[in-house]
Amino acid sequence: MADERTTSLGPTGEQVRANVQRLRESAGLTKKQLSDRVGELGRAIPPLGISRIEMGTRRVDADDLMALTVALGVHPAALLLPPTARTHDFTASGEAVPTTVEITGAGEVAARAAWEWAHGMRPLPSDTDDPDKAWRYFSADALPDGWRGMPASTYAQWDAEQARKDYERLLDLTGDNADGSWKDRGDDG
User: How far is residue 132's CA from residue 137's CA, in Å, rounded to a whole number?
Assistant: First the structure.
């Protein structure tokens, strides 16, 4: 009989399991193709291992997680968190319900807050009355050199400017105008 601790998944393990399957299928990959991609990266996970990950009977360690994210072309958070950062979902009757995710060790957290935390944008919500102090503690150890010591307000401004630049670049790459119409760039597509 297998040790329950080695096969029983917590909320993050369950999320990884579901996301590996969702992202593999979305990319149109078979389990063998994903296995081959991961193997080419130097991390052998046979097709049976991919099946077991997706069934929840095989855990994903940190090296597996990183190889899978590279093979799938996604950010590590795309395996660790649900595929939504929406602040609300709506019931059939139209009632807005906050969208939450369970974070191992932190409990239920707003989905958007979880994604912002996972991307180093801000600490998980806490009971502190001083967000700048919480930011300083978070950034001291959680962020790379160059982002440490930056006040939360400065980081937020920098992040907003970067998001605008990324959005404009995306619009240019896709040919979309901000109003949703298509740019005529004089080429065939």
Answer: 9
Q: Which two tokens stand for residue 179?
A: 């109003």
| 98 strand-pairing partners | 88
Task: Give the tens place of pLDDT for each residue, 141-161.
Answer: 777 777 666 666 776 777 778
95-106 in b/e form (b: 16+ CB < 10 A) is eeeebbbbbeee
Q: Cα(54)–Cα(176) distance, rounded to whole angstroms?
A: 36
The dihedral over CA atoms of 160, 104, 16, 18, expressed in degrees to the nearest 10, equals: -100
Dihedral (Cα; 46, 56, 11, 69), 10-degree rounding = 20
CA–CA dist 54, 52 (Å, integer): 5
Q: Mean pLDDT per segment of 10 residues, for the chain of length 189 residues?
A: 60 96 97 98 97 96 97 96 86 88 91 88 78 79 72 72 78 64 47
> 169 is written with which tokens?
């670049």
CB atoms within 10 A of CB 131: 15
